UniProtKB/TrEMBL annotation:
PROSITE patterns, alphabetized: FAD_PCMH
Ranges for domain FAD-binding PCMH-type: 33-197
Annotated organism of origin: Alkalicoccobacillus gibsonii
NCBIfam families per the UniProt record, alphabetical: murB, PRK13905.1
Biological pathway: Cell wall biogenesis; peptidoglycan biosynthesis
Necessary cofactors: FAD
Family affiliation: Belongs to the MurB family.
GO molecular function annotation: UDP-N-acetylmuramate dehydrogenase activity
The protein's name: UDP-N-acetylenolpyruvoylglucosamine reductase
InterPro entries in the cross-refs: FAD-bd_PCMH, FAD-bd_PCMH-like_sf, FAD-bd_PCMH_sub1, FAD-bd_PCMH_sub2, MurB, MurB_C, MurB_C_sf, Oxid_FAD_bind_N
EC class name: oxidoreductase
Enzyme Commission number(s) from the entry: 1.3.1.98
Highest taxon of the lineage: Bacteria
Entry keyword NADP: yes
């Protein structure tokens, strides 16, 4: 597989600024760590996305889709094949109480746009640092709300470039899960059904949730957000705190002293530091409380060789 040849082929149908060789993925994820992508494509239209998929398929390249990188760890060896970043597909339309948002836009931006149009339903998402596509993929939630409560349908592209619309009831939405985790569809957009509301009330709720997030979460350091799913009958952060793990470090990664559910990149952490610390937390909590901590963060790529 000659990457330079494939790169030149991509440039015949995709703008030069949307195709990169050996792109450092640490620049595209919230943890600020990880290796390079062999080929990194950031399509700014459906046609460019389809062209990238066609070329990838013709060369039998591995494919990775990356949203805003808020809930992702890229391993230190990077990602082979083609990585498609969706961050330039950000169109958003509102008509009445309906919002259609492309996958690359932020879910925070969608919640703010809803406020601008006096629409209620996305207040819970005002502090979720992810893309619309990532929010659908994970059925993201916070402060008692989640995407499944407002999503109506999703539009996706298949690996062959066909566009499909999938209704909410066929998305298998559950706690931090969706059908997208078991298929290879590429999320293009989500359609949300919101409610006309009082902008003063909507803004007050968003302000309160933003203040709660900023006061409790270690936003001053790079991180992948909340690392672990909520175990049945427990809170991950409480189990970690009760295990006296806050402040524990491996390399440049540290269990946050501010919020035990977060692991932060405090001093040039590698992905190996981060992943080793996750394993240590899981092992310690299992030993102390016989509770398995499952991660909600997505790990991509290869170890450094």
């Amino acid at each position: 597989m000659n990457l330079e040849t494939i790169y030149q082929e991509l440039l015949t149908s995709i703008k030069t600024e949307n195709v990169c060789l050996a792109e450092p993925l640490r620049d595209h994820v919230y943890t600020k760590m990880g290796g390079n992508a062999d080929l990194f494509v950031t399509p700014e239209s459906i046609n460019e996305l389809r062209a990238a998929l066609d070329i990838r398929k013709s060369h039998h390249m591995p494919l990775t889709i990356l949203g805003s990188g808020s809930n992702v760890i890229i391993k230190d060896g990077g990602i082979r094949g083609m990585t498609i970043g969706m961050g330039k597909l950000t169109n958003l339309f509102i008509e009445g109480d309906k919002m259609i948002a492309q996958a690359g836009g932020t879910i925070i931006g969608a919640s703010r746009k809803a406020l601008d149009h006096n629409l209620s339903g996305l207040e819970f998402a005002c502090g979720i640092p992810g893309s619309v596509g990532g929010a659908l993929y994970m059925n993201a939630g916070a402060y008692g709300g989640e995407i499944s409560e407002v999503l109506e349908r999703a539009t996706v592209m298949t690996q062959e470039g066909d566009i499909l619309t999938i209704e909410k009831e066929d998305l298998n939405l559950g706690y931090r899960k969706s059908t997208f985790q078991s298929n290879d569809y590429i999320i293009l957009e989500g359609e949300f059904k919101l409610t006309i509301g009082d902008p003063i009330v909507i803004k007050a709720k968003m302000d309160a949730l933003t203040e709660a997030r900023e006061s409790k979460q270690p936003l001053e350091y790079p991180s992948c957000g909340s690392v672990f799913k909520r175990p049945p009958g427990h809170f991950a952060g409480k189990l970690i705190q009760d295990s006296n793990l806050q402040g524990t470090r491996i390399g440049g990664a540290e269990v946050s002293k501010k919020h035990a559910g977060f692991i932060v990149n405090i001093d040039g952490a590698t992905s190996k530091d981060y992943l080793d610390l996750i394993k240590l937390v899981q092992k310690t909590v299992k030993t102390n409380f016989q509770v398995e901590l499952d991660t909600e963060v997505i790990v991509l790529g290869e170890d450094l060789k």
